From TrEMBL, chain A:
The lineage of its organism: Bacteria, Bacillati, Actinomycetota, Actinomycetes, Streptosporangiales. One of its GO terms (cellular component) is cytoplasm. The keyword Ion transport does not apply. Belongs to the SoxB family. It comes from Planotetraspora kaengkrachanensis. Its EC number is 1.5.3.24. It comes from the Bacteria. This is Sarcosine oxidase subunit beta. It catalyses: sarcosine + O2 + H2O = formaldehyde + glycine + H2O2; sarcosine + (6S)-5,6,7,8-tetrahydrofolate + O2 = (6R)-5,10-methylene-5,6,7,8-tetrahydrofolate + glycine + H2O2. Gene3D superfamilies: D-Amino Acid Oxidase, subunit A, domain 2, FAD/NAD(P)-binding domain. PROSITE patterns: RHODANESE_3 (PS50206). One of its GO terms (biological process) is tetrahydrofolate metabolic process.
From TrEMBL, chain B:
It comes from the Bacteria. This is Sarcosine oxidase subunit gamma. Gene3D superfamilies: Heterotetrameric sarcosine oxidase, Probable tRNA modification gtpase trme, domain 1. It holds the Pfam family SoxG. InterPro entries: SoxG, TrmE/GcvT-like. The lineage of its organism: Bacteria, Bacillati, Actinomycetota, Actinomycetes, Streptosporangiales.
TrEMBL record, chain C:
It comes from Planotetraspora kaengkrachanensis. The lineage of its organism: Bacteria, Bacillati, Actinomycetota, Actinomycetes, Streptosporangiales. Residues 540-808 form the GCVT N-terminal domain. This is Sarcosine oxidase subunit alpha. One of its GO terms (molecular function) is oxidoreductase activity. It comes from the Bacteria.
TrEMBL record, chain D:
The gene is soxD. One of its GO terms (molecular function) is sarcosine oxidase activity. The lineage of its organism: Bacteria, Bacillati, Actinomycetota, Actinomycetes, Streptosporangiales. One of its GO terms (biological process) is tetrahydrofolate metabolic process. Transmembrane segments: none annotated. It holds the Pfam family SoxD. It comes from Planotetraspora kaengkrachanensis. This is Sarcosine oxidase subunit delta. InterPro entries: SoxD (IPR006279), SoxD_sf (IPR038561).
Length: 405, 190, 922, 85
């Protein structure tokens, strides 16, 4: 097997039989569920915890995302939680004792119109006030950071500049999940695969247990971390979520010798691409417009993606698409997550990360564990309550056109 | 007074044994909205010389070409200088109809010849097989990345109605795609 | 080097280079067959371990022989046509992108059919012939250059003639039918919902397009894609000289190439005996057949068969030199050989079926995964569903083709007559062996292309992994260029072995498009460069180009940004244009504004519901500015509304929102208010619009429109007139986006250029672009939706309470104004900013803070600069900004942090110029 | 590329349509009478089932008509559709 990679540990996790009751049941063994379990054990000493996963561990969006990590979000609330996550990423490999190949190679967000430029500069200034490293680069500077981007004026939507976050980057998604899983399992958390939660039992306004394909499991707290399936699980407890589920596609090329030193994202031309550690170009494609739980998108979206990619990167012309796939993502009206309490006592929710929750994994795990342990939100996730839809205090990363990945 | 100009004026007609592409500018076009079951619809049909086509995707041709655009919407196309608007207004009287002159909204590109279907198939997802989309058929659809109204004018002839702001794009696209079918006996003329 | 071409094999010579050395092959070769013919055994080093690797297979399943050539970063030597002068270099796992531009053209075609047949082997040809006989429209696609699927590999006869001949004739006949399309060298690589399939046709460097994507919508699909031979994991199974038995047979029969001189055959089933026979006939010495079963198949007389044996070691570093075989109760034997042919049975090619949503079923008889239930309209025929005899495949294909045609509505026409095939020997049941057990699994390779061994798989299962998906990701097996065509099921089987679970329970990893790698530029097709996204232009575009205007991209539109004169930079040009409008007269192309004709008895009522202000009270002949909100109360669009008649309005929208506003109107009309009698029609491009602005505009208009009374009393602000301008039928609106006396002249778009030229012909009018328009409107505090708003801004935030009707019981967005957050006093308001230093231009997007020294982050922001310009008329720079509680901060000093500096600014009204509106009447 | 059956134009490629989300969510009779919670529900909360889903489509590149369809979000199969009258 590819030997230019650090070796995996010889032990990852075991597969215990589920017990009949836990203090905390986490529904969904993706990155968020696993990180939450880890910080519950580590920060709060809560280890009577089960993470229930309907399929194979971290086989949902965690296995499917383009691994972009950055914290240069527009609004203070977003910057707060993503920057917290980024700081955790910076120490995560040591913390977990697992090579997660976190590579701070920087992220460029390209601007292609005067309106893009305004929004980008706005974000750079907001980021600086929030202590997030951010720069505005001219096209020439873009070329220095990423020589293969075509910054000439004669493309359909020329590059007018870019925001740059040097501390941003990518990590190896599976290793991140396995690192959290291993560390949580080592502290006594039960990781239970092939265990689908089919119902949440509520009595007297309080959560009692979950029904699963492996039997009923009682729980003091049930914490959802089911990403695209959040609505389905929450509905069994009578809780409605402002979330719609859509396929989001990605693709990889064959392994190539290094050509792409950083991460490039373009909202207007719809490209985001990096070259992963092995050498494959990893590229995100668009979101399919309709609700669907199929982990597959439509092909014309890939075709458009390729046309967009070649506008910016003519050198990719003869690269090949090796594999395409999709995850199903949970999209909220304001493109910001929902993390906090629900009208049901003991039922907590973490969802709505849509196209961009990988980067938040350690940050949200940290805050969600706090919320579970204290029964109320951590200050960093307090703005991301369900109530904001009633008051109107949205954290509108959509409206502000900041990119969500 | 300066001469009238159609936006894709830079578009040079091309023709070969297999394919002919040219612009047909300055046609009169009226967008007509009316309840197909209404008296006004019948009267308008009478005035235009043929009932308004109510089968989706069909067109009739009498005093003007009438293209089905939707269940209560038609595009009435006359030759340059025709006045179907007057005819329609007179027939509709005071009934609730929508009559809008959209003559300059779209221009028309004609695509003719044995390879016309092959050319359009590069950018149009409709099944253009003669059994499915023969003379008398029309459709609003996409051609490449432009919205068009496509009408089959003959066994191997089509009219492509395209919004004038997209006409330059579409002309470029058509010429690029047509290259393959223009090798035999190509003539370009102004 | 010795030629390994069969004696007497004819072919036109083709010269080529490989890794810097010159060779010769023949036309019809692949690079792989030509290399083998030249005796080249080692064609690559393995990616991680650097082990020598040889050609292992003969088509798309090849894991080892990857090369790059020209601008192509990675290709399989086994599928690459040998062409004169080909200069290829071997790869070690990774390709290299070329700096040379790819000058080829690519395109796509949509196609429709009643029956799509994938695969032109015996099953596919029979299916296509049977379907075509009914009159159904048929497409048959096959990825190979030559018809017949595996027939040319096996040299079997069909209908008494060689299989390839039969196939060529059958395909030619099919191609001659009017409603059949034959696509060769075409790989169907994706199978999507509603029987939508995508294929790539390799048309060649000389074709108009090098590669073409076929987008096929099929009513019925027949998958006749054949099967891949299965490898077996044993020690040293990656040595050059180890090859799939059927592939070696293909090299002999298809290309007249002998991949070795003396071969050991290692098999679990009968198919390798046929391969051995063909190779022997071609001149390869068969040293022994090593059969894992206790009963031998039908070997050629004189061939030694070792039943109940397996291969336990392979000798030779650079390539096979000997093979060690073991069998229970026998002493190990080392057999000299330079070729080791392997057959572990056959895996039906279920990729497309699985992509179609079909479920796979494990078939114990063949030891493979075969098609199970599926919801789409698809049939699977031949080896692709585990039928492994020629006669069976022909029959199966014909039946599937007929069924598919019938399901598409076609009754039997001329029936397809199944051709005769030679009687086949009764087959012995196959054994299912994936792995030769050993103490050490370090050289038992499961994925040659990723250097994954059985030891790696066992490390994964040892670490606690129980899912094949985990093992795939832990080991990377199946993730390379070949996408595990050979290694996928093998990996599952090894996991099963390690965990003691049946293969049937473990299943496979997910099959995903594309079935074969497809080039980025192939998929981009024609949508590149100027055709990447439509460029929209107005009818005045050519003039703007001729006058040297740089263009601003606004959505898909190109809008003239400014018109620099010789020696002017943008700043100078814009100051000059602004000055002209404020002191004299300027003209702008405003044609891109969206225009919607709204007609019907309920049109006024309809607009009352959409706009925040009242439109029903507008008089015919008059114009009103209006704002639309989304139901959440945030500003969505703005523009003017012209009342043309009691029952008719013309609504204008922003350039970027024209389509969205029309869709918005239709949505409400059709889905909520179908009882309203209103029709909406886009007329955006029917009209060309020229904005004439400045104190001199009245005189210019008067000169061009002698029939029009232009004095302020006859033609007041916010009214319109139909008249002739420059002899053209025109509608003139007296509206202003600059605060100056101004008119918008609308004419039929065909007349746009004539109007513009007439305006310019007066000699007094300065053309101005979007930048000047922006400055002028900002001086007057007019917001631009999308620039000064961002989807979080209400009309009240913009200081536009006056545009929000208090009288109407409801309009879209109204309810949201009463929510807690929308009525917060500290919401961000649109205000003006004047920098203390009047020469200092604030960057748009800069933020505002309260204090003159910057605390440690995070620093709460008060808001940001939305628009910022130099103003000739104000003699200063100025900005618009959204500032928390801004209207209560008039006169306050705030700070804009720029780098290390805190730039002081004063908060002012957002209306900085002519707040009394004295200038609009001239 | 789904094949979506426009009630008027017949089956057309998905790319010709605009998705309108859940069907049968009526604009409230009297928004002013709703509580903030009820209004939020109208604004932001929509069903999101895995399975049968009644939803709206607009044939934007064709006849511009809105219609309703029932699609299974687990398989993407459209089971029924209706004209909005
Ligand atoms: C193609 C793609 C690209 C992306 N790119 C990026 C990116 O570049 N950067 C970024 O930050 N984010 C990105 N994202 C988003 C990111 O992947 C997600 O936001 C994030 O992974 C969500 O959290 P998670 O890891 O816990 O989700 P998941 O990994 O999806 O975890 C949820 C888990 O819940 C399980 N589950 C669901 N229902 C049940 C049930 N009833 N019982 C038990 N278990 C259940 C699921 O099987 C799943 O494993 C991308 C997403 C996709 C699909
Ligand atoms: N003796 C055995 O055990 C054994 C095993 C397998 C096959 N066979 C023989 O092989 C033959 C099988 O006939 P068949 O018609 O089923 O298959 P085939 O292998 O003859 O033909 C399939 C064709 O489809 C092509 N193809 C595969 N995937 C494709 C794709 N995605 N796009 C385009 N083309 C694609 C293949 O390259 C091939 O040309 C029979 O003669 C059978 O006897 C024998
Ligand atoms: C960052 C990243 C890199 C990947 N690289 C490869 C790769 O090199 N080869 C490959 O076959 N798949 C690669 N994949 C895709 C996976 O094989 C797989 O498609 C994805 O995890 C979704 O799972 P599924 O296709 O099994 O549903 C990659 C995925 C991600 C997220
Ligand atoms: Zn329609």
């Amino acid at each position: 097997m590819t030997k230019d990679f650090p070796d995996h540990p010889d032990w990852l996790w075991s597969s215990p039989e589920p017990r009949r009751s836990y203090d905390v049941v986490i529904v969904g063994g993706g990155g968020h569920g696993l990180a939450t379990a880890y910080y519950l054990a580590k920060n709060h000493g809560i280890t009577d915890v089960a993470v229930l996963e309907r399929g194979w561990l971290a086989g949902g969006n965690m296995a499917r995302n383009t691994t972009i990590i950055r914290s240069n979000y527009l609004w203070d609330e977003s910057a707060g939680i993503y920057e917290h996550a980024l700081k955790l990423w910076e120490g995560l490999e040591d913390d977990l004792g697992y090579p997660i190949l976190f590579s701070q190679r920087g992220v460029l967000n390209l601007a292609h119109s005067l309106q893009d430029v305004r929004e980008s500069v706005r974000r750079v200034h907001a980021n600086r006030l929030n202590g997030v490293d951010a720069e505005w680069l001219t096209p020439e500077e873009v070329k220095e950071v990423c020589p293969i981007v075509d910054v000439s004026p004669d493309v359909r939507y020329p590059v007018l500049g870019a925001t740059y976050q040097p501390r941003a980057g990518i990590a190896k998604h599976d290793y991140v999940a396995w690192g959290f899983a291993r560390a949580a399992a080592a502290m006594g958390v039960h990781l239970i695969e092939n265990c689908e939660v089919t119902g949440v039992e509520v009595a007297g306004g309080r959560v009692q247990a979950v029904q699963t394909t492996r039997g009923r499991i009682a729980a003091g707290t049930v914490a959802l971390a089911a990403a695209g399936h959040s609505s389905v699980v929450a509905a069994t407890a009578g809780v409605e979520l402002p979330v719609q589920t859509h396929p989001l596609q990605a693709l990889v090329s064959e392994l190539l010798e290094p050509v792409h030193p950083t991460v490039v994202m373009s909202n207007a031309v719809h490209v985001y691409v990096s070259q992963a550690h092995k050498g494959e170009l990893v590229m995100g494609a668009g979101i399919d417009p309709y609700n669907s739980y199929r982990r597959r998108g439509a092909f014309h979206i890939i075709e458009q993606q390729m046309s967009a990619a070649l506008e910016l990167f003519p050198i990719f012309a003869r690269a090949h698409v090796l594999r395409t796939w999709a995850g199903i993502v949970d999209v909220t009206p304001d493109a910001s997550p929902v993390v906090g309490t629900t009208p049901v006592d003991g039922l907590l929710v973490n969802c709505g990360w849509g196209t961009g929750g990988f980067k938040a994994t350690p940050g949200v795990g940290w805050c969600y564990a706090h919320t579970i342990a204290h029964g109320e939100p951590h200050p960093l996730n307090a703005p991301f309550s369900l109530e904001r839809f009633t008051t109107g205090a949205l954290v509108d990363e959509h409206g502000a056109a900041a990119v969500a990945h | 007074m300066a001469e009238r100009l159609s936006p894709p004026a830079r578009f040079t007609p091309v023709s070969s044994d297999d394919l002919r592409i040219a612009e047909v500018p300055f046609l009169t076009q009226i967008n007509l909205r009316v309840d197909p079951k209404s008296r006004a619809a019948a009267d308008i049909g009478l005035a235009l010389g043929a009932p308004l086509p109510t089968d989706p995707g069909t067109c009739t041709s009498a005093q003007a070409d009438v293209l089905w655009m939707g269940p209560d919407e038609w595009l009435v196309v006359g030759e340059r200088g025709d006045d179907p608007e007057g005819t329609i207004r007179a027939a509709a009287g005071t009934a609730h109809v929508g009559i809008t002159d959209v003559s300059a909204q779209r221009t028309v590109i004609s695509v003719d010849g044995p390879r016309s279907r092959d050319l359009l198939a590069h950018g149009c997802a409709l099944d253009l097989h003669p059994r499915v989309f023969g003379p008398g058929r029309c459709a609003q659809t996409m051609l490449a990345r432009a919205l068009v109204v496509l009408a089959a004018t003959g066994e191997e002839g089509f009219r492509v109605f395209v919004r004038s702001s997209f006409a330059g794009y579409l002309a470029d696209w058509l010429l690029d795609a047509a290259g393959e079918y223009l090798r035999k006996g190509t003539v370009t003329s102004r | 080097m010795t030629s390994r071409r069969m004696a007497g094999w004819q072919g036109e010579p083709v010269r080529f280079r490989f890794d810097g050395r010159d060779y010769e092959g023949v036309r019809g070769d692949t690079l792989a067959s030509a290399l083998l013919a030249n005796g080249v055994r080692t064609v690559a080093a393995s990616p991680a371990l650097g082990r020598p690797r040889g050609i292992y297979a003969a088509w798309t399943e090849e894991p080892n022989a990857l090369v790059r050539y020209g601008v192509e970063p990675m290709a399989q030597a086994t599928t690459l046509d040998l062409t004169e002068g080909l200069d290829a270099t071997s790869l070690r796992g990774r390709g290299r992108l070329s700096e040379e531009p790819d000058t080829s053209r690519y395109d796509a075609v949509h196609a429709h059919c009643d029956v799509l047949v994938v695969g032109a082997g015996p099953a596919g040809l029979a299916a296509a012939a049977a379907a075509a006989g009914t009159g159904a429209r048929v497409i048959i696609a096959d990825d190979r250059p030559v018809a017949g699927g595996s027939l040319p590999d096996t040299a079997e006869t069909v209908g008494g003639v060689p299989g390839d001949e039969w196939a060529a004739t059958t395909l030619a006949e099919l191609g001659g039918r009017p409603d059949v399309r034959v696509l060769s060298r075409t790989s169907v690589f994706g199978y999507y919902d509603d029987n939508y399939l995508v294929a790539v046709e390799r048309r060649g460097a000389d074709a108009y397009s090098r590669e073409r994507v076929w987008r096929i919508r099929a009513r019925q699909v027949v998958l006749a894609t054949g099967a891949h031979e299965r490898p077996i994991a044993f020690a040293g199974n990656d040595r050059p000289g180890v090859m799939l038995a059927g592939s070696a047979r293909a090299y002999a029969n298809r290309h007249g190439v002998l991949p070795g001189a003396r071969a050991v055959v290692f098999t679990t089933n009968d198919s390798a005996y046929a391969a051995a026979r063909d190779l022997a006939a071609a001149g390869v010495e068969i040293a022994a057949i090593v059969d894992t079963r206790d009963t031998a198949g039908h070997a050629q007389d004189g061939t030694e068969v070792l039943t109940g044996h397996v291969v336990t070691a392979v000798g030779g570093d650079e390539g096979v030199s000997s093979v060690t075989v073991s069998g229970a109760g026998h002493v190990d034997r080392e057999i000299e050989a330079d070729l080791l042919l392997v057959s572990g049975g056959w895996n039906p090619l279920v990729h497309l079926f699985s992509q179609a949503g079909g479920e796979l079923r494990h078939d114990d008889a063949t030891g493979s995964f075969v098609p199970g239930p599926v919801r789409q309209a698809v049939e699977v025929a031949g080896a692709a569903r585990g039928v492994f005899t020629l006669a069976g495949c022909l029959e199966d294909g014909a039946a599937a083709g007929a069924r598919a045609a019938e399901a598409a509505g076609f009754r039997m026409g001329d029936a397809f007559r199944i051709p005769e095939t030679p009687a086949e020997e009764p087959a012995e049941p196959a054994a299912h062996l994936w792995l030769v057990e050993a103490a050490d699994y370090a050289t038992h390779f499961v994925d040659l292309q990723r250097d994954v061994t059985v030891a790696d798989v066992m490390k994964a299962t040892g670490a606690g992994l129980r899912s094949v998906e985990h093992v795939k990701r832990y080991t990377t097996a199946g993730t390379a260029h070949d996408q595990g065509k050979l290694s996928g099921v093998l990996t599952s089987a090894v996991v099963g072995h390690a965990l003691g679970l049946p293969l049937a329970d473990l299943g496979t990893t997910t099959f995903r498009a594309p079935y074969v790698p497809v080039g980025f530029s192939t998929l981009a097709g024609r949508d590149r460069g100027a055709l990447h996204d439509p460029v929209r232009t107005t009818s005045l575009h050519e003039w703007h180009v001729a006058y040297g205007a740089p263009f601003e991209n606004v959505g898909q539109w190109k809008r003239p940004w400014y018109y620099p004169r010789a020696g002017e930079d943008m700043e100078a040009a814009v100051l000059r244009e602004c000055h002209a409008v404020r002191t004299s007269v300027g003209a702008m192309d405003a044609s891109t504004l969206g225009k919607i004709d709204v007609q019907g008895p309920d049109a006024a009522e309809f607009l009352d519901r959409l706009y925040t202000n009242m439109m029903s009270t507008l008089k015919v002949g008059a114009i009103r500015y209006g704002v639309m909100c989304r139901p959440d109360g945030m500003v969505f669009d703005d523009g003017t509304v012209i009342r043309l008649a009691d029952d008719r309005f013309l609504v204008t929208t922003t350039t970027g929102n024209a389509a969205a506003v029309l869709d918005w109107m239709e949505e409400w009309l059709q889905t909520e208010w179908p009882h309203l009698r209103v029709y909406c029609t886009s007329v955006t491009e029917h009209w060309a619009t020229v904005a004439l602005a400045g104190p001199g505009s009245r005189d210019v208009l008067a000169g061009l429109a002698p029939g029009l009374a232009v004095d302020a009393a006859s033609f007041p602000f916010m009214t319109w007139r139909d008249t002739e301008v420059a002899g053209l039928a025109a509608r003139v609106c007296r509206i202003s986006f600059s605060g100056e006396l101004a008119y918008e002249i609308n004419v039929n778009a065909w007349d746009g250029l004539a109007l513009w030229e007439a305006v310019m012909g007066t000699g007094t009018v300065t053309p101005y672009g979007t930048e000047t328009m922006h400055v002028l409107r900002a001086e007057k505090g007019y917001p631009i939706v999308g620039q000064d708003t961002d989807g979080t801004v209400t009309p009240a935030d913009l200081g536009m309470d006056w545009v929000v009707s208090k009288k109407k019981p409801d309009f879209i967005g109204k309810r949201s104004f009463a929510r807690a957050d929308t009525s917060r006093p500290d919401r961000k308001h649109l205000v003006g900013l004047l920098p203390a230093d009047p020469g200092r231009l604030l960057p748009e997007g800069a933020h505002l803070v309260e204090t003159g020294t910057l605390p440690e982050p995070p620093v709460p922001t008060l808001g940001h600069v939305t628009s910022s310009y130099r103003s000739a008329v104000l003699g200063s720079t100025f900005a618009l900004a959204l500032v928390s509680g801004g209207r209560d901060r008039m006169g306050e000093e705030l700070y804009v942090p720029l780098g290390d500096e805190l730039v002081p600014v004063t908060v002012t009204s957002h209306i900085l110029y002519d707040p009394e509106g004295a200038r609009r009447d001239g | 590329m789904l094949l979506i059956p426009c009630p008027w134009c017949g089956p057309r490629d998905e790319a010709e349509f605009h998705y309108g989300g859940q069907a049968h969510v009526a604009y409230p009779e009297n928004p002013a009478a709703l509580s903030d919670e009820e209004w939020a529900r109208y604004l932001f909360f929509r069903d999101n089932p895995e399975g049968r889903f009644a939803e709206r489509w607009n044939h934007t590149a064709g006849c511009r008509r809105w219609f309703n369809a029932v699609r299974n979000t687990a398989t993407n199969e459209i089971e029924a559709r209706e004209v909005i009258a």
